[in-house]
Amino acid sequence: MPLPSLRHQNLLHLIRQHGGMSTKELAKRLGVSEATVRRDLATLAGQGLLQREHGGALLPEGEPPYAVKLARHQGVKLAIAQRAMPLVPDGATIVLDSGTTTLALARLLAGKPIRAVVLDIPLAQALAQGETEVLLVGGRARNGFYSLVGPWVEELLERVRADLFFLGADAFDAEGVTNHTFEEAAVKRKAMAVSRKTVLLADGSKWGKRAPAFVTSLSALDRVVTDLKDPALEALVKVEVVSGAV
Question: Start and end of every HTH deoR-type domain (predicted)?
Fold first, then answer.
C-alpha cells in the first residue's frame, strides 16, 4: 500500500482530473479498500482540499460524480418523472437532457410510441424498448458522466424540430438555470432553440445555487417540475410541486 502522503496526492490528482469520483472507483484506481479511501477523504476534506459527498467526493463546488448524482434524492426524482410523464402524448417528438432526473423519466417513457432525441448514453439504454424510437445525437461522451457534447451534437440538433425539451440542471436560482460545464450549457441552449416548449425537471436541493455556465433565464421555461414550494420561484415561472413520497 502506498504511503498515506503519496496516496493522498494520487487521490487528489484523480479528483482534479475527473472533477469528482465515487469511493468505489477511487478504491479501484488506488488499489486500496473503500474504508481506506473514506478515511483519506475525511482527512483531505478536513484540510479543505475536497468536498465529501455520499458515495464519493468532488472538488469544492465541483460537479459530483455520476454515481453520487444517481444515488441522490431517488424518491423525489421518481415523483418528478411521474408528474412529467403525462406531458408527453403518443406520437410526440421530445428531447431529453442528460441527467439522473431525466433518466427517471426515460425509464417511465420506455416503450411508449414517441420519438426521443437523447443527450446522454444511459437515456438511450433506458428508452430503447417497444415502440419508442430513440435518436442519439453523436458527439463526444464526457468520461464518467456520459453526456454528449460538442459541435456534432449541436449540428444534429439543428435539424430537429421537437414538441418538448425536458431540461436538467446542476443549479438554478432567480437569475436562471446554470451548469458546471460550458459545453453542456451550449447543448442545452440548442435543444431549447429547436423545441416548442422547455420544462425544467429539478429537485429542490438545486434551488438557490449557481454553477459557472449560464443556460437560460427562468422566464424562457414553460414550467418547472420540482419538489420545492417557494413563493420566490413561483413568482418567476409556472411551478408544479410534487411530493417526495412515492
Answer: 4-59
The pLDDT of residue 244:
61
The phi, psi pair for 6, rounded to 5°, reads -70, -40
The model's pLDDT over 75-85, given as tens digits with 9 standing for 90+, comes to 899 999 999 99
Q: What are the start-end ranges of the H helices in the chain?
A: 4-18, 23-30, 34-46, 66-71, 74-84, 100-109, 121-127, 151-157, 182-193, 231-234
Residues 101, 24: Cα–Cα separation, whole Å:
22
Distance CA 33, CA 28 (A): 8
Range of the domain at 26: 4-62
CB-CB contact of 130 with 99 (8 Å): no
CB 173 within 8 A of CB 209: yes
192-245, pLDDT tens digit by residue?
Answer: 999 999 999 999 989 998 887 899 999 999 999 999 999 999 999 999 999 864
CB distance 170 to 142 below 8 Å: no
- Tell me: do 44 and 161 sit in the same domain: no
Q: Which three cell numbers stand for residue 109?
A: 417513457
